Amino acid sequence: ARQQLLDIVDTKLDRVLAEGSLARRESAAAVAELEKQISSTSRDQVIEQVAYTWFNRFCALRFMDANRYTPIGVVSPADGLTQPEILLEAKQGFIDPQWNADNARIMGLLDGSIASDAPQSEAYQLLLIAVCNSYHSKMPFLFERIADYTELLIPDDLLSDSSILSAMRQVMTNEACQSVEIIGWLYQFYISEKKDEVIGKVVKSEDIPAATQLFTPNWIVKYMVQNSLGAQWLATYP
Question: Distance between CA atoms of 161 and 167, rounded to whole angstroms?
Fold first, then answer.
């Protein structure tokens, strides 16, 4: 999943930065910010950051869908169907007002009055961005408002059977999502390739998380607490 996302973001970055691109015409400020970020860090770091940001959001939304914390499936289809519920409802003419989405453009894409090479994909991207922005007030640490280059670099293919969302749903089943530990394990596996690359070497500052931030399962946390704080408590209050 990580490699797939990195490749997708890398390819889209080329399109966004191309001379005369649609992004340059319609989102000049975001493109300028993107170029500034690449200049101050590196192209690879920007790609890594954007891919990881979208991976986190997709994981969170799938976990929320599976546990019905969301009013409708944002990245998940209804039983027996393949497209996300939120897109199917939009195709039927309803978009929940709480998302504050660009209804006119979404409906125009879906009814054909606005031309697009991939109208459903573009409409779904707009819905997804609107949902992320809506959750900003509740979880700003994860859903910062997407009005920058992160929005420009959202993966295009989110609806096909080979998409990142399809792969995620296969792994993050409703049963697996009953335990919040799945989020930790997803993170652990996401950084595993990067960790293998940097372990045993002089670690750059941007690579420190991959080398040091490891998921600690619940049973290990309990063991550590019971044999440190717990042991101290028992010694004090036998």
Answer: 8
Quick one: CA torsion of 206, 183, 95, 113, rounded to 10 degrees? Answer: 50
pLDDT tier at 226, thresholds 50, 70, 90 = very high
CA gap 73, 102 in Å, rounded: 19
Q: What's this model's pTM, rounded to 2 decimal places?
A: 0.84
CA–CA separation, 151 and 145 (whole Å) = 9
Amino acid at 219: W
DSSP 123-147: HHHHHHHHHHHHGGGT-TTT-----
- Per-residue model confidence as pLDDT tens digits over 166-220: 999 999 999 999 998 998 888 888 888 877 777 777 777 777 776 777 788 889 9
